[in-house]
Amino acid sequence: MNMENTTAQQVQGVSMMAAAMFFLPVMDAIAKWLSTVDSVSPATVTLFRFGFQAMLAAMIIIAMTGVKSLRPVKLWGNLFRGVLMGVGGLCFYAAIKYMPLADAIAVFFVEPLMLTTLSAILLKEHVGWRRWTAVAIGFIGTLIVIQPSWELFGWVSLLPLGTAASFAFYLILNRRYGTADTTLVMQLYAGVGGTLTTLVALFFGAVFEVSDMTFGLPANALSWSLLLAMGVIATTGHQLITNASRLAPASLLAPFQYLEIVMAVLIGLFVFSEFPTASKWLGIAIIVASGAYLIWREGKKREESA
After folding, report:
1. Residue 100 near residue 276, CB atoms below 8 Å
2. What is the reported pLDDT for 89?
3. Angle between helical axes of 183-208 and 221-247 (0-180°, round to 10)
4. 233-264: per-residue pLDDT in tens?
5. Residue 301 to residue 219: CA distance in whole angstroms
6. In which element (H, E) is residue 117 found?
7. Is 207 exposed, middle or buried (0-12, 13-18, 19+ CB in 10 A)?
8. What mean pLDDT is reported for the chain?
């Protein structure tokens, strides 16, 4: 009976991860549409994405457990994680204004490779030759994806690497300091930290006249609705991922995370008329294989340790 319950929970976790991978690329597509069609700057998109996330998370927390539950156990840790998410959001939304959606998401999936590298450097975790080999091969795949975009977009094509690095540092902090607060409280302060980070970026964008980092209100009700939808999707998607991680092991969930690339390809094709070239497919395949192996290998090592 316990095994049946465990299996049922794992199936539920996989379903939640798959659902999250369906919704999150929709949020990214909305961001791309707003910046390319409605001329809303990437920084403005990022501001409202995190601002609405913080508002929604706060309202849910108050409705469920009261105002006192808004106080976090680790304020500064949560805010700093929000700063990292804000930096990652700014980099990613600036990138997809110019780059194909699938390309940017594929480059972002170098994150497990960065996490392995940072874990060895900062946390002094032992990384064997097999995982170092997977890291090296994965970075080769990243270069294959980036190279055509570099020729077209220059430094913009490296921005998804900034997003991947920010998220890897975010996960390092989770490993180092744990998750003392509830997922909703963490989402609330991730939203607050991301909002504050974006406000700083907007200030410097105005000072140095960087068009992608300047503030501008959306032009119509549809754009406002889409910005609100981004906040809803962000809150729902990350809640699904967190719950999935509690119900199923990372090694089981890992392959389903790459559904995000598949969804991004489909959205790019049908909404923006974008489709990866053969060389980019090769790079994507290498990144996916390397990342999936690293996650599987880490899960296996943890099982052996247990």
Report:
1. yes
2. 96
3. 140
4. 999 998 898 888 778 877 677 778 888 998 99
5. 52
6. helix 111-122
7. exposed
8. 88
Candidates 174, 180, 200, 242; CA nearest to 86 is: 200
Alpha helices in 178-218 (DSSP H): 183-208
Q: Spell out the residues 6+ positions from residue 278 whose beta carbon is closer than 8 angstroms to its own.
A: none
Residues 6+ apart with CB under 8 A from 75: 189
Q: How far apart are CA 71 and CA 80, in angstroms?
A: 16
Q: CB of 248 within 8 A of CB of 14?
A: yes
Using N-to-C axis directions, what is the helix angle for 183-208 and 75-98, rounded to 10°? 60
Q: Which of 5-9, 37-41, 146-150, 195-199 has the lowest mean pLDDT?
A: 5-9
Q: What is the mean pLDDT of residues 279-291?
A: 89
The arithmetic mean of pLDDT across residues 62-81, rounded, is: 92
Longest dimension (CA), the chain: 63
Estimate the crossing angle of helix 101-108 against helix 75-98, to 10 degrees.
140
What pLDDT sits at residue 176? 67
Residues 38/227, Cβ–Cβ less than 8 Å: no
Q: What region, left, alpha or beta, does residue 62 occupy, with left being phi > 0 and alpha being psi -120 to 50 degrees? A: alpha
Nearest to 89 by CA among 122, 50, 61: 50
Distance CA 59, CA 77 (A): 22
Structure-token pair, residue 276:
């990866």
Closest CA to 89 of 201, 220, 218, 210: 201
Q: How far apart are CA 255 and CA 156, in angstroms?
A: 28
Record the pTM.
Answer: 0.88
**pLDDT for position 194:** 96
The whole-angstrom separation of Cα 56 and Cα 58 is 5
Cβ atoms of residues 267 and 24 within 8 Å: no
